[in-house]
């Protein structure tokens, strides 16, 4: 028994080290003086510095792309939560004919390969004047986020006892004000979790941003994808840019850990 | 009680539905139409109708298509079982052993799936670097072999990409299985314990059947993701060397947005969509049968 337990610890510790090490490596080397970037053997002892962050965000001008990421992620998340709450409320509270089919259709959109919509959108966006605009990318990200938003919120809203609605209805509240004054405040932790999941998907997206934007609206992931490691400056610059691109979503994801499994499986798993 | 037909419910549903119609259904119809034409975006006014010949050419004559289909299948067949096995093993160890620091393990082991695949791809590209990468340094100092060109050697490139996929997405399997295991009713395990079950038989005959629907679900999710695989491959190898790491989505992307052959690219993207649809149908049937 004791050996088994010891073995479990060993496996878990090895797995954790392998999992965390590359991320730790990136974050810690982002504070390494860039002179040491190509030192071989790799140097692990150094005076931490912020020079790489300055190099990449000021000198190499990554700041606008970071701002674009923030704008697109906030916009797409807000829009998805808004439209998602409305739709989820309708699905959870009204007897709509074909509600199940609509829900399934929305879910199936998430299953669809992005490239199938990206190719025509590339042409249509040029005609509609949405190519390389923030609003264009925000709308495109809604294809990714809305299915999650609708399904997660649908699950949360269904858990709210109907008596709450009925009480408000007796007080003369309209359907719209029931949604905004009763349902949404009651399920705010669920909404926060949904928003975090949406933000992670939007922030981490590459293929939509790469295909539908160019020099104006591209997000942080697009220039980061261009680091090939052929030049010395790229190494420490990437560690800094990569840290800024990865760490915020890791922190948000850990904060919403309790709801992650539920969200990722469209509410199949209620989580623990 | 007879209820009057009310339009209100639809008002709530309409914004989301309209947005999705404009952004998915309309483009898809447009794209289906394009896939029946030869359409080079460099000369968009010339657009002859060619029927199904884009599809026929891809399936019968296009070697790159065949290679990228095979590569995608290889990635799925190798990466997914390993991710599933590792994720399940780690989840089961935590569930049965309840180690000290359970919460820390559970947090650490889900980190990779939260990081952007682009960042993960570039990070591993650097770690794999033949001259100054950390992995080659470790190999050289421990095993005496160095300067392995993980991503540049056609025989190694695909395996190197698969390894990164495993590193990143085992965490997804782990997340699903841990959540599934911890939501199992305690009584079942306790009853089995009283009956004298433990260890492997306990897992095999009590726990495994209970989480089997989750295994199917996780398997299908990951399969769909692999069919759509783009980010880490693009970032690490651009599909190369040659076509050694080309995937279906990567090839469709290149046909459409690099060579601007929109007809061929659209046809290819619909072939991918058909593959996904078949998997989705299996998914819905499993959802309906095992999870309802």
Task: Describe the fold and architecture.
The complex is a heterodimer of chains A (272) and B (292). With 272 residues, chain A is mostly helical. Chain A has one domain: MetI-like fold, CATH 1.10.3720.10. Chain A contains 13 helices and no strands. Chain A starts with a helix and ends in an 8-residue tail after the last helix. Chain B has one domain: MetI-like (MetI-like fold). Chain B has 13 helices and no strands. Chain B is globular and about 75 Å long. Chains A and B meet through α1, α3, α4, α5 and α6 of A and α1, α3, α4, α5 and α6 of B.
Concise account of the structure shown:
Chain A has 272 residues and is mainly α.
User: Strand content of the residues of chain A, in percent?
Assistant: under 5%
**Radius of gyration over C-alpha positions of chain A, nearest whole angstrom:** 23 Å
Binned, the helix content of chain A reads over 70%
Low-pLDDT stretches of chain A? none
Q: What is the ordering of alpha helices and beta strands of chain A?
A: HHHHHHHHHHHHH
End-to-end CA span of chain B: 30 Å
What would the principal axes of the Cα set say about the shape of chain B? globular
| DSSP, total strands of chain A | 0
User: What is the N-to-C succession of helices and strands of chain B?
Assistant: HHHHHHHHHHHHH
- Which shape of chain A, going by the Cα principal axes? globular
Fraction of residues in β-strands of chain B: under 5%
Per CATH, which architecture of chain A?
Orthogonal Bundle
Number of helices of chain A: 13
CATH superfamily of chain B: MetI-like
Taking all residues together, what is the mean pLDDT of chain B? 89
Count, helices of chain B: 13
What is the end-to-end distance of chain A? Answer: 27 Å
Uncertain parts of chain B: none
Structural class of chain B: mainly alpha
């Amino acid at each position: 028994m004791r050996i088994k337990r010891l073995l479990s610890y060993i496996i878990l510790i090895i797995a954790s080290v392998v999992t965390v090490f590359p991320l730790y490596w990136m974050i810690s080397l982002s504070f390494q003086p860039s002179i040491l970037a190509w030192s071989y053997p790799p140097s692990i002892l150094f005076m931490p510095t912020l020079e790489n962050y300055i190099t990449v965000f000021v000198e190499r001008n990554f700041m606008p792309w970071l701002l674009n990421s923030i704008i697109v992620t906030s916009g797409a998340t807000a829009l998805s939560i808004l439209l998602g709450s409305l739709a989820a409320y309708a699905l959870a509270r009204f007897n709509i004919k074909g509600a199940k089919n609509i829900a399934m259709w929305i879910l199936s959109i998430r299953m669809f390969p992005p490239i199938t919509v990206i190719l025509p959108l590339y042409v249509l966006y040029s005609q509609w004047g949405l190519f390389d605009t923030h609003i264009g990318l925000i709308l495109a990200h809604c294809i990714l986020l809305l299915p999650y938003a609708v399904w997660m919120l649908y699950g949360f809203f269904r858990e709210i006892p109907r008596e709450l609605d009925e009480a408000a209805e007796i007080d003369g509240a309209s359907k719209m004000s029931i949604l905004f004054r009763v349902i949404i405040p009651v399920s705010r932790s669920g909404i926060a979790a949904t928003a975090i999941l949406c933000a992670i998907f939007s922030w981490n997206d590459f293929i939509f941003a790469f295909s539908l934007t160019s020099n104006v609206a591209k997000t942080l992931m697009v220039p980061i994808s261009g680091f090939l490691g052929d030049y010395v400056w790229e190494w420490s610059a990437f560690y800094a840019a990569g840290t800024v691109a990865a760490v915020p979503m890791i922190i948000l994801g850990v904060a919403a850990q309790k709801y992650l499994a539920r969200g990722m499986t469209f509410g199949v798993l209620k989580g623990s | 009680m007879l209820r009057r037909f009310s339009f209100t419910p639809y008002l709530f549903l309409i914004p989301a539905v309209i947005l999705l119609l404009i952004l998915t259904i309309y483009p898809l119809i447009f794209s289906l139409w394009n896939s029946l034409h030869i359409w080079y975006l460099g000369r968009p006014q010339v657009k002859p109708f060619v029927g199904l010949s884009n599809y026929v050419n891809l399936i019968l004559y296009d070697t790159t298509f065949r290679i990228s289909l095979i590569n995608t299948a290889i990635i799925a067949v190798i990466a997914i079982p390993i991710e599933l096995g590792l994720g399940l093993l780690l989840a089961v160890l935590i569930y049965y052993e309840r180690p000290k620091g359970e919460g820390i393990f559970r947090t650490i082991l889900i980190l990779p799936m939260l990081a952007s695949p682009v960042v993960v791809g570039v990070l591993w590209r650097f770690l794999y670097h033949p001259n100054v990468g950390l992995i080659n340094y470790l190999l050289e100092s421990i095993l005496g072999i160095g300067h392995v060109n993980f991503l540049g050697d056609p025989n190694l490139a695909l395996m190197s990409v698969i390894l990164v996929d495993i590193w990143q997405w085992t965490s997804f399997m782990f997340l699903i299985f841990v959540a599934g295991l911890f939501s199992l009713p305690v009584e079942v395990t306790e009853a089995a314990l009283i009956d004298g079950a433990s260890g492997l038989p306990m897992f095999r005959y009590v726990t495994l059947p209970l989480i089997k629907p989750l295994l199917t679900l996780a398997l299908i999710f990951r399969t769909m993701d692999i069919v759509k695989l783009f980010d880490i491959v693009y970032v690490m190898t651009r599909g190369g060397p040659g076509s050694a790491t080309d995937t279906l989505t990567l090839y469709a992307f290149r046909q459409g947005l690099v060579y601007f052959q929109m007809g061929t690219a659209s046809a290819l993207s619909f072939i991918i969509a058909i593959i996904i649809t078949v998997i989705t149908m299996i998914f819905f049937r499993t959802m309906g049968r095992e999870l309802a």
